[in-house]
Amino acid sequence: MLARRHLAAALAVLAIVGLSGLIRRPGFVEGGFASHDVGGILYEAMLLRAGGLPYVDAVELKAPGTFYLAAVLAGPEGRDIAAFQIAANLVALGSLVFLAWVAWRLWGARAAVVAAALYALHDAHLDSMDANYVTWAQLPAVAAALAAVRAATWREDHALRNRSLGTWLVAGALCGLAALCKQPSGVILVPVLFWAVCPPGRRDVRAGAAVVAGFLLAHVPVALHYLVRGHLGALLTGYVWNPWGFQYIAHNAAGTSPARAAWEFVAAAAHFLALPLALAAFALAARPRGHVAEDSRHVPGAIRFLLVWTAAAMAAAATGLRFYKGYWLGVLPPLCLLAAAPWGASAGGLWRRGWPRLVLAPLVLALTVRAAWALRLTRDDRARPHDEGARTIGRWLGERTEPGDTIWVWGWHLWGVHAYSGRLSASRVYKTLGLLTTTHDDTWRTPAGPSQVLAEGPWAQQLLHDLAAAPPAYIAIGGTAPKQQFPALRRFLGERYVRDHGLRVGKVEFWRRADR
């Protein structure tokens, strides 16, 4: 009977994974950018394949892990968006499988089905910009939780204690990989380290040291690459302590009052995670006191671990106080695991009681329908190309330039042009937000105001120096770029470039070097 129940649960989880794959199907076949940030990832991959280094040959804010992944997974030149997107969708489905595995280890087979279903109802919608940084960071973060569960279980068995230390090391390394893919996702280190050091009733410093050692070991390959090239300092200032990133956070925090930030935090959490939040809160309220439900696979400290994970992930979601929906993907796993506890939504007898049927069931049904409808809209959105302009521009520029030529584009919606044309930037300032212009001030529910050019700033001067030293074959300026506020660039274009009207894509301006 037990084996039959486990088989049924495994088949149910596989069915959920299959349905999630159908929702993500456009990402397997559409082959275009769903996120312009992915254009930035592929640009850095192209730079790596060409022998360059992020943070050295390009000013960068993001973590380097995805750049190395793209250099391997995005084709021989690191710019095949279709191949990269397929790999990202497989990674996202892998995160779902690992989450079900964690739930199974914690609470049993039925909980695995509940956690998987709840996660699959939300993850594709929260991660609608598939192949983005958060996609790649989610898998090692959830895998780190699985390793921590195994290590905490083995720690209770004296014969397996040494194996437990090795598994804590693996958990720390997976935390490091999550941070390498997306810095805020590295907060998974906090709950894993807490569980390692503070099991119920005692302290385990050796386990904590193993986690920290694993976290540092995960960074060794990238650090060695920079060290061998003589640029370890650039990695430290670009990835570990990026002044551009801290300036971005400080700028947004200064413009938002604490009361407003708290309200936006609560409103965004409830908007994006209403169902898992409600079920997790119910499970915590219904948790038995003084004993553990008979059908659970109790791991000492599991509830505390999940609560710390939730708090750390919510803090990460608040980074910059903009509360984009993708930021909440990191909060989803611990909430799903809490909701799937055997005394919560997965309790078979719960739904036979009177008040859950009358009160909880209608709420769960309504929120489930809402989440399913959001998934349908997400699938439709993924099936529609988001980068037709970048494809057209990239193809046009690729036909008019040679492989060794460079270009420069201004506009975040044009980042993908580098991958589609196969041409690198003539300047380290290939991204302009926060460097050449003020950062966007939009939030999860408010549009951005107009950008302002920082014409006298150091990065504007760096851009002009780079362009003058090695003028690119073409310059493309997006229609929303505040070019009139940058007279020095307009003078440079007027002196050395001619306007090329051979292609019309929206309000994008194309400038060809005059000697071509």
TrEMBL record:
Pfam families, sorted: PMT_2 (PF13231)
Source organism (scientific name): Nannocystis pusilla
Transmembrane segments annotated in the record for this chain: 165-195, 207-228, 265-285, 305-324, 330-351, 358-375
Location in or out of the cell: Cell membrane
Predominant localisation class: membrane
Bilayer topology annotation: Multi-pass membrane protein
InterPro entries found in the cross-reference section: LipidA_mod_glycosyltrf_83 (IPR050297), RgtA/B/C-like (IPR038731)
GO MF annotations in UniProt: glycosyltransferase activity
Highest taxon listed in the record's lineage: Bacteria
E.C. designation(s): 2.4.-.-
Keywords: Cell membrane, Glycosyltransferase, Membrane, Transferase, Transmembrane, Transmembrane helix
Name the record gives this protein: Glycosyltransferase family 39 protein
Enzymatic class: transferase
Glycosyltransferase RgtA/B/C/D-like domain mapped to chain residues: 62-222
